[in-house]
Design brief:
2 domains; 6-stranded parallel beta sheet; about 240 residues
């Protein structure tokens, strides 16, 4: 089956050559992104090891983590949320541009994970109302191929969103925490390993991932890491 999919993909690429989704130039390295635009992507190599907050100099703990330790144990966000990655992410998340999602997924798979791999990968769930509106869970579609590339078990049925919440985008940090408080729960009868990672597409204040981490730890998970495709450069900004 994989060989058939690969042949179909090559035939598609023959008929429809790769084109950069950002500038329209020829795509490179097997994705719809040219070499120049790929080089402009803001990578998050210098950051806080605990929360992945972008920093001028890498640190084990940023000032915020020293004051208030997050409920998770480690973080991985290979990119910073900024131009031009934010354009691809916006098209994928809010414009139903699945081609942009494939580019983002492939880019993530090519990055090296700086933390110990978890025993299982989970995703932040959408409320059924939001899922009906959007038609897909953007975090799940990023997580599935990433888990496959890393050889990790992937579960999308562990957490459930028990109530609909406001979109985090327009809320400040305090409002974001209040917005998601008590919004998640473990499904009954779920057994989890000691170490899991919970994945979302973008991490801003970390409020959503923090609430998920608390639920998982209350459910008996010993170590919870948070993974996001991109981390916002300031905690004042999900």
């Amino acid at each position: 089956m994989d060989a058939l999919v690969e042949r179909l993909y090559r035939w598609q690429r023959f008929l429809l050559p790769l084109r950069c989704l950002l500038c329209g130039a020829a795509g490179a390295k097997g994705i719809d992104l040219c070499a120049d635009c790929a080089a402009d992507l803001p990578r998050n190599h210098s950051c806080c090891a605990r929360c992945a907050l972008p920093l001028a100099i890498p640190a084990a703990l940023c000032g915020e983590c020293q004051r208030h330790a997050p409920p998770w144990d480690g973080a991985w966000a290979p990119f910073r949320y900024g131009w031009p990655l934010d354009r691809l992410e916006s098209r994928y998340k809010f414009g139903a541009d699945l081609a942009a999602g494939r580019v983002l997924s492939t880019l993530w798979q090519r990055e090296s994970c700086p933390v110990a791999l978890a025993q299982c990968l989970l995703t932040v769930p959408l409320h059924r109302r939001r899922l009906r509106q959007r038609g897909y869970n953007q975090a799940l579609e990023l997580a599935r191929p990433l888990a496959r590339a890393l050889g990790l078990p992937f579960r999308h049925d562990v957490l459930q969103r028990t109530r609909s919440t406001e979109a985090q985008t327009e809320l400040d940090a305090i409002s974001r925490r209040r917005n998601v408080r008590g919004a998640f729960a473990l499904r009954h009868g779920i057994e989890l390993p000691a170490h899991v990672a919970i994945l979302d597409d973008v991490m801003t204040t970390g409020a959503t991932l923090a609430e998920c981490a608390r639920v998982l730890k209350r459910g008996g998970v010993q170590r919870v890491d948070v993974w996001a495709l991109a981390r916002a450069p300031s905690p004042s900004g999900g």
